[in-house]
C-alpha cells in the first residue's frame, strides 16, 4: 500500500511539503507521449480533494446525487482511523467524527468538513472507504465554492490519460493507464481488476486514497492505493500481479489503483448505501458483522 503517514513525522513532512511549490503541477499534461490521446482533456486541479491525517481523499458524488444529499468523502479502506480491515471484513454504518481538510483548486485550504459515519469500507476485492459527512453538497458549495468530483460509471480504458491528485501532498501525478490486473495481491489482501499505471506516476506514502481522474472526462475513474516498492513478491508494500492462470509477476516501482465505476450502483436515493441494489458488486458484511 502507499503507506498512510502517521504521527509527528507526518505533520512535519506535510508542513514541509506545503513549502516546496508542487502546486505548479496542477495542470501538468500526461508525460507518456506515445499513449497520449489527441482528444481534448479537462484541466485537473485540487478542488474537491481533501487531506486526511494520514492519507488523501476527495469529496465525491454519484451521478444521481442531489445538492441536498449528505456529501461523501472517499479514501482507501487502509486509511481508516480504526486501522486496516482484515481480509473479508466489511465496515458499514460505523460512527465517525473524522475531519477532512478541504482544498481549493490551487491546493489552498478551503475549510474543514467532518464525518458523521463510515458509510462503507473494505480491503476485500477493492480498497475503499466512503464517509458520510455532516455537510450537504449545496452547503459545501455555498460556504467554500467547491463542487464534488463525480464518479464515472464506465470501466476505465487502457491508455487513458489520468491524473492522481493527492490532497495530502498537494501534488498531482500524471500518466496513463498501462493496463488491468485480474488479481493484485499484497500480504493477506487481494484486489480484483486493478489499474496499473505507466511508470510516470511515482506515487508515495500519503497519496493513498487520491482520486484518479480521467482527464478526458474530468470524472473519477479509480482510487490510488499501492505500489511495489522493493521488488518483493506479494508482501505488504510489494504487491504482485496474478493472471487468470495463476502466474505471478512483479513490477518494482510500478503503482496501482482500484476501479470505482461500480460504486454508484450501490448508493440510492439520498446517497444511502444499498448493498442489495441491482448491479451492486461491493462485498457485503458477513452475517452478524458490520
Please describe the structure with a list of short key phrases separated by commas or semicolons.
mainly beta, 16 strands, 2 helices, 6-stranded antiparallel β-barrel, single chain, globular, Thrombin, subunit H, 290 residues
Short account of what is shown:
This protein is mainly beta and 290 residues long. The protein folds into two domains: 24-46 and 152-259, Trypsin-like serine proteases (Thrombin, subunit H); 49-150 and 266-271, Thrombin, subunit H, CATH 2.40.10.
- Residue windows where pLDDT falls under 50 for at least 5 positions: 7-38
Sketch the topology as an H/E string, one letter per element: HEEEEEEEHEEEEEEEEE
How many discrete domains?
2
Which word captures the global form?
globular
Q: What's the multimeric state?
A: single chain
Q: Which homologous superfamily in CATH is the superfamily of the largest domain?
A: Trypsin-like serine proteases
Indicate the CATH topology of the largest domain.
Thrombin, subunit H
Strand order of the largest sheet: 1-2-3-7-6-5
Largest sheet: 6 strands, antiparallel, barrel
Class derived from helix and strand content: mainly beta
Number of helices: 2
**Helix proportion range:** under 10%
Query: What share of the residues does DSSP label as strand, in percent?
Result: 35-45%
